[in-house]
Amino acid sequence: MAGPKFYAVRVPAPAQVFTTWDECQRAVHGKPGALFKSFSSRAEAETWAGLRSTSAPVVAPGLRVYVDGSFRPGFLQAGWAWVAIENGRELARASGTSPGPAESRNIDGECIAAVEALRWLTKQGRPGVICHDYEGVARWALRDWKANSIIAKWYQEQACPLVGKNHFEKITAHAGDPWNELVDQLAKAALDPKT
């Protein structure tokens, strides 16, 4: 028999921990960018939600743009999103869906998000770090990988001229990074016609 579950909600504020899925669902349903996760202990849930601190949070300095893509069976397009932060504070965000059917499922969304993020950085006139959880985002943009698929070829064509002084950083997916979790939720929400 499974033990009790605790449902932590980080976004929307205020952060909370619930003991039933129904309570959690009421708190996040219809809220774009909602950020929530289940845990087997209250302490873990409270720590993840920011209600209990084990140490000072690590805030990477500088301009960073988190990117992610999503795909849902039965939905033709891929979702994409990016969130720009600087010194731990959100500056801007954008999300949407691919203009046509997703050839490579969520990879289409990952690539579109990175191109949109690079375009935003170019408009800002400042370099930044593209934080991604799909390795191809950096490998194709830096021409470390050969582009074979339609989306990879499109991505290289769009991204390579925009790389300039920007850097790439691979982030482990679903490892508790709040910005990576947020951009993941935004990419998923882009596929929901109700939002």
Notes on the protein architecture:
This protein is of the alpha/beta class and 195 residues long. The chain contains 6 helices and 8 strands, in the order ββαβαβββαβααβα. A 5-stranded mixed β-sheet has the order 6-5-4-7-8. The longest helix is centred in the middle third of the chain and has 19 residues. It starts with 5 loop residues before the first strand and ends in a 6-residue tail after the last helix. 37% of the residues are buried.
Count of DSSP strands: 8
Strand content: 15-25%
Distance between the termini: 36 Å
Spatial strand sequence of the major β-sheet: 6-5-4-7-8
Instruction: Assign a percent range to the helix content.
Output: 25-40%
> Ranges with pLDDT <50 over ≥5 residues?
none
By DSSP (H or I, 4+ residues per run), the number of helices equals 6
Order of SSEs? EEHEHEEEHEHHEH
- The overall pLDDT average reads 86
Radius of gyration: 17 Å
Structural class: alpha/beta
Q: Overall 3D geometry?
A: globular
Instruction: Report the biggest beta sheet as strand number plus sense, adding barrel if it closes.
Output: 5 strands, mixed
Structure described in brief:
The chain is α/β, with parallel strands linked by helices and 195 residues long. Helices cover 34% and strands 24% of the residues.
Any key phrases for this structure?
globular; alpha/beta; 195 residues; 34% helix; 5-stranded mixed sheet; single chain; 3-stranded antiparallel sheet; 6 helices
